[in-house]
Amino acid sequence: MTHRPRRSALYLPASNAKAIAKARTLPCDVVILDLEDAVAPDAKAMARDQAVAAVNEGGFGPREIVVRVNALDTEWGADDLAALHLCSPDAVLVPKVMHAGDVDHYARHMAATTPIWAMIETTASLFRLDTIAGAERLTALVMGTNDLAKETGAQPGRDRLPFVGALGLAVAAARLHGRVILDGVFNGIDDDEGFSAQARQAVEFGFDGKTLIHPRQIDPCNAAFLADAAELAWSRQIIEAFDRPENQQKGAIRVDGKMVERLHLHQAHRVIAAALQPG
Length: 279
Known about the structure:
The protein is α/β, with parallel strands linked by helices. It contains twelve helices and ten strands.
């Protein structure tokens, strides 16, 4: 199984060529070229062209390049997906998913090898997390907490108390089906303390990373998801133990006097992946 760091996923409007160029030098793990919310209607076509050009040009190093498209029921959605046949992003992020059938609907309009990431940002999706996470071609869930707040009328503070249940269930669904899951954005660009607190909360929930709206959030986000030296050392010890020929087929082994199962091996790989540095 391949484990990639996805601690920090930065949204960038694909209409902003300077921002796209700058992203090639930023220490984020994922760049999300946005064709949807961050782009005005009269700039949609231009943003689409720039996203395709950026993916084809490359130069992003180890960073994953994901394109968020407009919904298929909008006037831009079908053109977005058609244009992405001209390039090969690492994934396509699809918005406003309500059920697993939506994921399948997008898949029929996409290249067969392109992974799908799905936004969890509708109230309907919260009641279908299991089936959405289990949809074929889906590899990641991304929380859209701003849209959830709009739909529910909730007024979440830093602790996001109204969404605690939804966030926990979304992580559980992702883990059940072996999917990546990223936390929603923090809107306070200048509130460093608030961002760090919410990033730590995301770690506590078990998210793989967090979506970001500004480059200044990258470093504290990466730091929040980075394990301490002791946890890194223990994770390496677990991986090395399971890699020994006599342990490769075992489901549980003894490591340093402790019983360790393969679920701990998976967790160890995630910890080590989060320690990798992009760029």
